[in-house]
Design a protein that fits this description.
Layout lengths: L7 H19 L8 H13 L6 H6 E3 L8 H9 L5 H27 L6 H4 L1 H4 L4 H4 L3 H20 L5 H17 L1 H28 L8 H7 L1 H9 L1 H14 L5 E2 L3 H9 L12 H27 L7 H5 L4 H16 L3 E2 L6 H13 L9 H36 L11 E5 L10 E2 L3 E2 L20 E2 L12 E3 L4 H4 L4 E5 L14 E6 L3 E6 L3 H8 L4 E6 L11 E3 L5 H4 L1 E3 L6 E4 L10 E5 L3 E6 L3 E11 L7 E6 L2 E8 L5 E11 L3 E8 L9 E11 L2
Parallel strand pairs: 4-7, 4-9, 12-13
Antiparallel strand pairs: 1-8, 2-3, 5-6, 9-11, 10-11, 12-23, 14-17, 15-16, 16-23, 17-22, 18-21, 18-23, 19-20, 19-22
Helix pairs in contact: 1-5, 2-4, 2-5, 4-5, 5-9, 9-10, 9-11, 10-11, 11-12, 11-13, 11-14, 16-20, 18-19
């Protein structure tokens, strides 16, 4: 079977899509402000269920409510099971960039395929690289193609919404909601306004559009019945919209831009400007093109009035239903100048997110297919503008990719399951917006969250995770992260003029790497911990017990607050462990133990070699048997071990090869709904085994 030859339009479309996707895959890093933070949090979401990642589980908690802002996290988390995290980001960006022009053309051709100007539809390619994408707002960027897919699908089938089609429409709407609430809000409002105008226009033209019309207002009302049907079908969507809107925006402080700034933003097309003002000319030239399209549309309507049938009303020749797109663009423009820039609980950049839709919604209003030369002219001009916009962007990508690569050369120096805090002279200050290759970056901060790369794929915790402080992201802090800041394993002096001069770090940290604009510091071990590393032994006996209780002379006491960092052995995580005493369990010292309901992590520095380890746990009367698990150096050695339901001391012995100079044991129990399941660790005996 021979393939149908591609038309010039399809060929141009495919070439532009491939060209706009190429930089995403040619360069290692995509230089956005928040992008690396999104990769890291998607990684945390993927790894959180693994008990080996005890640091992540200690610091973070999951926020699994179905709020907007989920799409990019779901996509990246799913693909991380197949490809590396940084590739997952490329997939999300490719979906945002590749789908937007296609969804926009789908929307335009669904409105009027016969009178659609293909060249004008290529405006979607100019909007693929926009300011909000380079801020790293991936969920909003994904919501834009969903917006136009939803609107285009509804427009095509609005007069015949069968049950399967209604299901598809609901799916598009829910996907838009899960991507970003503002796009969802604007989509529902636009659909409602379009439905109202379309049915009202149809009712008026059917009733008053003929020579011998009858002023029967009852007939007009009857023809508006489908509008009530539309409202009924949209009731579940209205409920979702109002429920989230009222819960996230009412009663919070609002921040407004000054009118002068709004006017400048509007006419400079700042929604298309991100690295420098060189992008402004592209938006302004596009406005000139749209102004010409507007004049041609007015001329076409005047011609229709002049050449109308003598019995046709002037208003019917002048108005064809498409003016609703002009009215909607005007409504969005009014919103742009009147809405706040931010609402404390609902996020910011509201004006930016309105502005980017104004001109895309306006395009179906235009009638520019007057002559094929006019159509070719629009195609050529829009294509050239999109290529110039693309070229400016790709040039900056090349240089920022090199700079980001240099900033991440020390990533491999971060030990697994550690904590890292970032120190910077000024959050989002000039240092975060200045490149060694291209100079100042005016509107975004491409280096602000690059430190997140230091905590990806190693189970490390980023203690400056801004997403974890916000309720509309799936990863949140369990408690105030300041409790870990002072004891962080690593400090990254980031984008500071004097990053190599940090005297307050000299006491507890050692600088292990320096780059052009950053230095990496690692916490030093205490003298006690260093002495422990140097000692030689054949066996170790650890006795877990409350503070201040008797212990055997040949054992090493491990109390609830015996910290690994201070001694070279002890607990790694911070939790509500406590010591307990049970005379019914066994003779002293094994009747003492340390207990907790959360994961317990006990770490010992050991010379590399083979060891035999015996652990003992105390059971206690419970309504149901407790299932205990133990992971040693990332290998599960005890899986769902059912403990007795009475006071008893039970032991388990396993062998292990230490290759990284330590033994890290993670104990946890399967939680029960009817009672608080706890582990009770009594002792740990470690004996070196000769080869």
């Amino acid at each position: 079977m021979r393939l149908k030859r591609l038309t010039p339009k399809v060929t141009l479309l495919l070439v532009l899509v491939a060209l706009h996707l190429a930089p995403i895959w040619l360069f290692t890093y995509f230089p956005t402000q928040d992008g690396s933070s999104h990769i890291y949090n998607a990684y945390v979401l993927k790894e959180y269920h693994k008990h080996q990642n005890y640091r992540l589980r200690e610091v973070y908690t999951l926020n699994l409510l179905l709020f907007p802002n989920w799409s990019s996290q779901i996509i990246m988390t799913a693909f991380m099971h197949i490809v590396p995290p940084i590739v997952c980001e490329k997939i999300v960006i490719s979906l945002s960039i590749g789908l937007l022009p296609l969804a926009f053309l789908y929307f335009l051709y669904g409105i009027d395929q016969q009178r659609m100007n293909f060249g004008l539809g290529l405006v979607g390619f100019i909007f693929t690289y926009h300011y909000l994408l380079h801020m790293g707002f991936y969920n909003f960027s994904l919501s834009m193609p969903m917006f136009f897919c939803s609107l285009g699908f509804w427009w095509r089938h609005k007069t015949n919404l069968t049950l399967p089609r209604l299901g598809i429409l609901y799916l598009f709407l829910i996907l838009t909601y899960l991507s970003h609430f503002q796009s969802f809000l604007q989509l529902v409002v636009v659909m409602t306004c379009f439905a109202t105008y379309t049915h009202l226009y149809q009712a008026l033209t059917d009733t008053f559009g003929s020579k011998n019309f009858n002023r029967n207002w009852r007939q007009v009302l009857n023809r508006l019945a489908p509008l009530a049907h539309f409202a009924g079908l949209m009731l579940p969507i209205y409920f979702i919209l109002l429920a989230y809107y009222l819960s996230s925006t009412v009663g919070d402080q609002q921040d407004y831009w000054q009118l002068k700034r709004l006017i400048q933003y509007f006419f400079d097309m700042k929604s298309l400007v991100y690295y420098s003002d060189r992008h402004i000319i592209i938006g302004q030239l596009m406005l000139v093109v749209l102004a010409i399209a507007f004049l041609l549309t007015i001329w076409d309507r005047i011609q229709r009035v002049i050449h109308r049938d003598r019995y046709q009303p002037i208003w019917l020749a002048l108005i064809d239903g498409k003016e609703q797109f002009l009215l909607m663009a005007g409504g969005l423009t009014w919103l742009f100048f009147n809405v706040p820039w931010s609402v404390d609980s609902g996020g910011g950049w509201i004006n930016d997110r309105v502005h980017i839709y104004i001109f895309l919604i306006l395009l179906p209003f235009f009638t520019t297919n007057i002559h094929r030369y006019v159509q070719h002219a629009f195609t050529a001009v829009i294509t050239l503008l999109s290529l110039y916009h693309f070229g400016l962007t790709a040039y900056v990508y090349y240089h920022l990719d090199r700079e980001t690569a240099e900033m991440t050369t020390a990533v491999e120096m971060i030990e697994p399951h550690s904590t890292l805090t970032v120190r910077s002279s000024l959050w989002d200050g000039p240092n975060h917006r200045t490149s060694s290759y291209i100079g100042p970056v005016k509107y975004t901060s491409p280096f602000l969250h690059v430190p997140a790369f230091y905590c990806i794929d190693n189970g490390a915790v980023l203690l400056n995770n801004y997403e974890a402080e916000l309720p509309y992201f799936p990863i949140n802090y369990k408690t105030d992260p300041d409790r870990w800041q002072q004891s962080a394993d690593y400090v990254l002096a980031w984008r500071m003029e004097n990053h190599q001069d940090q005297p307050d770090l000299d006491q507890n940290y050692q600088r292990i790497h320096s780059g052009t604009a950053y230095s990496l510091y690692q916490r030093q071990k205490t003298d006690t911990a260093l002495s422990w590393q140097k000692r030689s032994f054949n066996q170790l006996n650890f006795d877990f017990q409350p503070a201040g209780t008797p212990h055997q002379a040949d054992s090493i006491v491990v109390e609830p607050n015996s910290w690994y960092r201070e001694h070279g052995y002890g607990w790694v995580t911070v939790s509500n462990r406590n010591g307990q005493h049970n005379t019914a369990t066994a003779e002293s010292p094994n009747r003492d133990f340390v207990t907790d309901q959360f994961d317990g992590v006990f770490k010992v520095d050991l010379p590399n070699g083979r060891y035999q380890v015996k652990v003992q746990f105390a059971s206690w009367p419970t309504p149901k048997p407790i299932q205990l698990n133990l992971i040693a150096n990332d290998k599960k050695v005890i899986s769902n071990w059912v403990l007795p339901v009475q006071n008893e001391l039970v032991g388990y012995t396993y062998s292990l090869e230490a290759t990284d100079g330590h033994l890290t044991q993670i104990v946890y129990v399967e939680q029960e709904k009817r009672f608080e399941a706890r582990w009770q660790w009594a002792s740990c005996h470690i004996e070196r085994v000769e080869n």
